[in-house]
């Protein structure tokens, strides 16, 4: 049986170095609050306000380290609250997506793009992927068992020697399946 741990991903933002400096001040570096499941990734102590056409979230957690492009990841429910209609996309694929306003202690930014609903995916270390015969970008079918058993289709396999085994779903998906971080899922195909 191919079991994988589940990580539930709440709304969060990845910032470029340029945007970190615009929001927090020149030369500012994010402070590590907590290490995440993926090696080298962390939840920063800092948050920003995110403002859409219809609503606002005051304290959206920043995930570090800094990225090449700023990207806000929200659930579909979050998107409704903000008044946005972002597409489901893999991380980093932000072309043609809506933007929003970001506010930090040192400034404000009007993003023209960068808001996505993250595609559900599983991070595989290359050794795990090889052991199970899974290729990068392969689409998988994954079952979550329990009181609200659910089968997720179109789960993207992301394979790298920099990853640790972990399935990432957003809060809407986790609530629908009645699961939390640390629960497990089974890869069916």
Automatic annotation (TrEMBL):
Q: What does this protein do?
A: Involved in 1,2-propanediol (1,2-PD) degradation by catalyzing the conversion of propanoyl-CoA to propanoyl-phosphate.
Q: Which NCBIfam families match?
A: PRK15070.1
Q: Which domain of life is it from?
A: Bacteria
Q: Which InterPro entries match?
A: PTAC (IPR008300)
Record the organism: Paenibacillus rigui
Q: Under what name is this protein listed?
A: Phosphate propanoyltransferase
What keywords does the record list, in alphabetical order? Acyltransferase, Metal-binding, Transferase, Zinc
> Member of which family?
Belongs to the PduL family.
* Pathway(s) served: Polyol metabolism; 1,2-propanediol degradation
